[in-house]
Amino acid sequence: MAGHYLKCGKEVGTFLHALWDCPTVRPLWEAVLKKFEGWLRQALPESPQLCLLGDRFPMPPGLAKSEAGLMLMGFIVAARLILRNWKSPNRPDITDWLKLMTEIAAFELLIARVQNIPSKNRQAWMSFKYIEALRLGVATTQFWGLISKRGVRTKLGQKCVYATSHAKVVMYKNQT
Question: Distance between CA atoms of 98 and 103, rounded to whole angstroms?
Protein backbone atom coordinates (compact mmCIF):
# COMPACT_ATOMS: atom_id res chain seq x y z
CA MET A 1 0.00 0.00 0.00
CA ALA A 2 3.03 2.29 -0.25
CA GLY A 3 2.13 5.47 -2.08
CA HIS A 4 -1.60 4.90 -1.72
CA TYR A 5 -3.81 7.63 -0.32
CA LEU A 6 -4.71 7.22 3.37
CA LYS A 7 -8.45 7.84 3.05
CA CYS A 8 -9.36 5.42 0.28
CA GLY A 9 -6.25 3.23 -0.02
CA LYS A 10 -6.87 2.85 -3.75
CA GLU A 11 -5.04 5.55 -5.64
CA VAL A 12 -1.68 7.18 -5.39
CA GLY A 13 -2.05 10.18 -3.10
CA THR A 14 -1.64 13.03 -5.55
CA PHE A 15 -2.85 16.55 -4.83
CA LEU A 16 -5.66 16.23 -7.37
CA HIS A 17 -6.78 12.88 -6.00
CA ALA A 18 -6.71 14.03 -2.37
CA LEU A 19 -8.72 17.19 -2.99
CA TRP A 20 -10.94 16.23 -5.91
CA ASP A 21 -10.99 12.66 -7.27
CA CYS A 22 -11.06 10.63 -4.05
CA PRO A 23 -14.44 8.93 -3.47
CA THR A 24 -14.41 10.15 0.14
CA VAL A 25 -14.33 13.85 -0.83
CA ARG A 26 -16.26 13.74 -4.09
CA PRO A 27 -19.71 13.83 -2.38
CA LEU A 28 -18.77 17.10 -0.65
CA TRP A 29 -17.88 18.78 -3.94
CA GLU A 30 -21.09 17.52 -5.55
CA ALA A 31 -23.16 18.83 -2.63
CA VAL A 32 -21.39 22.21 -2.65
CA LEU A 33 -21.95 22.60 -6.39
CA LYS A 34 -25.59 21.58 -5.96
CA LYS A 35 -26.03 24.25 -3.24
CA PHE A 36 -24.58 26.92 -5.50
CA GLU A 37 -26.65 25.74 -8.47
CA GLY A 38 -29.81 26.01 -6.36
CA TRP A 39 -28.81 29.47 -5.14
CA LEU A 40 -27.86 30.81 -8.58
CA ARG A 41 -30.47 28.79 -10.50
CA GLN A 42 -27.76 28.00 -13.05
CA ALA A 43 -25.82 24.86 -13.87
CA LEU A 44 -22.18 24.81 -12.80
CA PRO A 45 -19.47 22.58 -14.24
CA GLU A 46 -17.90 19.96 -11.99
CA SER A 47 -14.41 21.21 -12.60
CA PRO A 48 -11.28 21.21 -10.43
CA GLN A 49 -10.22 24.20 -12.51
CA LEU A 50 -13.11 26.17 -11.00
CA CYS A 51 -13.31 24.62 -7.53
CA LEU A 52 -9.64 24.20 -6.65
CA LEU A 53 -7.86 26.84 -8.70
CA GLY A 54 -10.58 29.49 -8.60
CA ASP A 55 -10.44 30.02 -12.36
CA ARG A 56 -13.51 32.03 -13.35
CA PHE A 57 -13.48 30.85 -16.97
CA PRO A 58 -15.83 27.87 -16.34
CA MET A 59 -18.33 30.09 -14.43
CA PRO A 60 -21.63 30.88 -16.12
CA PRO A 61 -21.62 34.12 -18.13
CA GLY A 62 -23.29 37.13 -16.57
CA LEU A 63 -22.46 36.14 -13.00
CA ALA A 64 -22.10 39.18 -10.75
CA LYS A 65 -18.68 39.82 -9.23
CA SER A 66 -20.09 39.51 -5.69
CA GLU A 67 -21.72 36.15 -6.51
CA ALA A 68 -18.49 34.88 -8.05
CA GLY A 69 -16.59 35.99 -4.95
CA LEU A 70 -19.03 34.16 -2.69
CA MET A 71 -18.68 31.01 -4.79
CA LEU A 72 -14.90 31.18 -4.61
CA MET A 73 -15.13 31.58 -0.82
CA GLY A 74 -17.38 28.51 -0.73
CA PHE A 75 -14.85 26.50 -2.71
CA ILE A 76 -12.05 27.61 -0.38
CA VAL A 77 -14.13 26.55 2.62
CA ALA A 78 -14.75 23.12 1.05
CA ALA A 79 -11.03 22.62 0.35
CA ARG A 80 -10.27 23.75 3.90
CA LEU A 81 -12.67 21.15 5.30
CA ILE A 82 -11.01 18.44 3.24
CA LEU A 83 -7.54 19.49 4.38
CA ARG A 84 -8.62 19.83 7.99
CA ASN A 85 -9.76 16.18 8.02
CA TRP A 86 -7.31 14.64 5.59
CA LYS A 87 -5.87 12.11 8.06
CA SER A 88 -9.13 11.22 9.79
CA PRO A 89 -11.30 8.41 8.44
CA ASN A 90 -14.36 10.70 8.54
CA ARG A 91 -15.73 12.18 5.36
CA PRO A 92 -16.12 15.94 5.14
CA ASP A 93 -19.82 16.76 5.45
CA ILE A 94 -22.00 19.39 3.79
CA THR A 95 -23.45 20.38 7.17
CA ASP A 96 -19.96 21.38 8.34
CA TRP A 97 -19.56 23.38 5.14
CA LEU A 98 -22.92 25.11 5.69
CA LYS A 99 -21.99 25.94 9.26
CA LEU A 100 -18.69 27.52 8.20
CA MET A 101 -20.33 29.40 5.33
CA THR A 102 -23.01 30.76 7.65
CA GLU A 103 -20.38 31.96 10.11
CA ILE A 104 -18.35 33.56 7.32
CA ALA A 105 -21.48 35.25 5.94
CA ALA A 106 -22.26 36.66 9.37
CA PHE A 107 -18.75 38.07 9.69
CA GLU A 108 -18.72 39.41 6.11
CA LEU A 109 -22.00 41.23 6.73
CA LEU A 110 -20.72 42.56 10.04
CA ILE A 111 -17.52 43.85 8.44
CA ALA A 112 -19.51 45.41 5.59
CA ARG A 113 -21.77 47.14 8.10
CA VAL A 114 -18.89 48.46 10.21
CA GLN A 115 -16.90 49.64 7.19
CA ASN A 116 -20.04 51.14 5.60
CA ILE A 117 -19.64 49.12 2.40
CA PRO A 118 -22.50 49.73 -0.07
CA SER A 119 -25.40 47.32 0.22
CA LYS A 120 -24.88 46.13 -3.36
CA ASN A 121 -21.73 44.31 -2.21
CA ARG A 122 -23.58 42.70 0.72
CA GLN A 123 -26.49 41.46 -1.37
CA ALA A 124 -24.90 38.16 -2.43
CA TRP A 125 -24.11 37.13 1.15
CA MET A 126 -27.57 38.14 2.33
CA SER A 127 -29.38 36.21 -0.41
CA PHE A 128 -27.22 33.14 0.22
CA LYS A 129 -28.00 33.27 3.96
CA TYR A 130 -31.71 33.80 3.33
CA ILE A 131 -32.03 30.83 0.98
CA GLU A 132 -30.09 28.57 3.35
CA ALA A 133 -32.29 29.72 6.23
CA LEU A 134 -35.40 28.78 4.27
CA ARG A 135 -33.95 25.37 3.42
CA LEU A 136 -33.04 24.75 7.03
CA GLY A 137 -36.51 25.81 8.17
CA VAL A 138 -35.15 28.54 10.44
CA ALA A 139 -37.52 31.39 11.17
CA THR A 140 -36.36 34.34 9.12
CA THR A 141 -36.79 36.82 11.97
CA GLN A 142 -34.45 34.74 14.11
CA PHE A 143 -32.03 34.29 11.23
CA TRP A 144 -32.05 37.91 10.13
CA GLY A 145 -31.39 39.21 13.61
CA LEU A 146 -27.84 39.38 12.35
CA ILE A 147 -26.43 42.79 13.03
CA SER A 148 -27.65 45.71 15.06
CA LYS A 149 -25.82 49.04 14.98
CA ARG A 150 -26.35 49.52 18.68
CA GLY A 151 -25.83 45.88 19.53
CA VAL A 152 -27.92 43.79 21.88
CA ARG A 153 -27.99 43.96 25.64
CA THR A 154 -27.59 40.61 27.33
CA LYS A 155 -29.00 39.76 30.75
CA LEU A 156 -25.77 41.00 32.28
CA GLY A 157 -26.01 44.32 30.44
CA GLN A 158 -23.02 43.65 28.18
CA LYS A 159 -23.23 45.29 24.79
CA CYS A 160 -22.86 42.62 22.10
CA VAL A 161 -23.14 42.11 18.39
CA TYR A 162 -24.61 38.79 17.48
CA ALA A 163 -24.30 36.48 14.52
CA THR A 164 -26.28 33.39 13.67
CA SER A 165 -24.97 29.94 12.97
CA HIS A 166 -27.90 27.86 11.73
CA ALA A 167 -30.58 28.01 14.42
CA LYS A 168 -28.37 28.92 17.35
CA VAL A 169 -27.39 32.46 18.19
CA VAL A 170 -23.76 33.11 19.04
CA MET A 171 -22.92 36.20 21.06
CA TYR A 172 -19.73 38.18 20.49
CA LYS A 173 -18.66 40.90 22.91
CA ASN A 174 -18.21 44.30 21.34
CA GLN A 175 -14.62 45.50 21.50
CA THR A 176 -15.66 49.15 22.03
Answer: 9
Model's pTM, two decimal places? 0.70
How far CA 113 is from CA of 31, 73, 120, 129, in Å, comes to 30, 19, 12, 16
Return the CA Rg of the chain. Answer: 18
Q: What pLDDT, in 10s, does the model give residues 104-125?
A: 888 888 888 888 876 666 777 7
Euclidean distance between CA atoms 113 and 56, whole angstroms: 28
- Strands 152-153 and 168-173, by their bridges, are unpaired
Least confident of 30-39, 134-143, 158-167: 158-167
d(CA 146, CA 112): 12
Distance (Å, rounded) from C-alpha 165 to C-alpha 176?
23
